[in-house]
Amino acid sequence: MSPQPLSIIGAGLGGVTLGRALLERGIPVVLYERATSSPRHGYGISLHASTYKPLLKMLKMDEQTFRQNVAVDAAVGGNGAIDPKRLICPRDVASTSFRAHRERLEKLIRQGLDIRWENGLEKLEQTPNGTSLYLQNDTSREGQTCMVGADGVHSITRKSILREVGLDVLPYVTFNGKRKVNRSTFDEIYAPGMESSNVIEIHNNGVFLQVSVNDITAEQASVSWVYSRPAQGSSDRCFKPNRPLSGASDILKEFYQEIAALQDLPQPFLEIFDEQKMEQDRVLAWLMRTSKVDLPQLYQLASNGIFLMGDSAHSQAILGGEGANIAISDGLTLAEAIAARNGETITSWYSKRFPVWQQSLEISKTTIEDMHKGQGPKSKV
Hints:
This is FAD-binding domain-containing protein. The chain is of the alpha/beta class. It folds into 2 domains: 6-167 and 290-370, FAD/NAD(P)-binding domain; 172-287, no CATH class. 35% of the residues lie in helices and 24% in strands. A hairpin with a 3-residue loop joins strand 13 and strand 14 (220-230). Helix 1 (13-24) runs parallel beside helix 12, helix 2 crosses helix 12 (323-339) and helix 10 runs antiparallel to helix 13.
């Protein structure tokens, strides 16, 4: 009789890494994902050697081939290069780090996996016979002896069993946008200012600004921008820490007024931070959310065959954090612990990973503070 597949809730970076690592060890898995299978993460993330080199071993791929598959500028012969000197707070970014296209990275990792798209978790219940999963398409999976919650910062897995765990919102006003430009515009305006780096940052009169490459082809380029500043108390109309998830796309006119007030921007920031052009962008208001599940709670869940990883267990702010790298490392190392089929080994995994999560969370908070202090590159013409 074949063993029951391990259920993984969430097919983001952490979930697919865990699933692939278990599959490589001969352990069957099924991933349940709320989203559709259509592309959803068309943006760049910074990967560090400490993360991607262990990943290469699992994928049985050399670094050059890996970069050719996932680098944001791979289609035009690039390798995703990042110049740490162009960042205000490089943190873990080194010369070996590079910008990867997240969707292509996830697609590469999830090859061979059984992913049930549009099957997000609605709730779970613990019974004497194991854990029951209730999915969004009115189906259920009962008697689960082992499952993993990798369903992100708003984890339904976590909320179903640890309702008291909340999200802290750091006091920053942050907006993100995406824009597509033709190659001639990119080559003429963006490339000279970005030089050899696929992400650059400056500080301008109390505001942190970032421009990054998502993807480049022969015809066009996709770029992202970030505008971020400290919140200015309860009177700050742009700071909405209690807004619903659906409110991320509700952009007030005050934001565009702040954009118009920026001065002396060099290229490509001058081109990007143009209020009229930004009104045509896909703009989202980001909240810098953080959370942490206590270690005793993780031990208790593990004793019942429920494990949390990635943002489900330890979310970091989008700016200044290393959520993607830690989620990948979580997946690789948790797979080793699960494959050992030893409860004490799982407990040991939490004991080893928890200090890593704590340290990274504290560093991320310090990093985002430093990013807004004006250290590093300055705006100048």
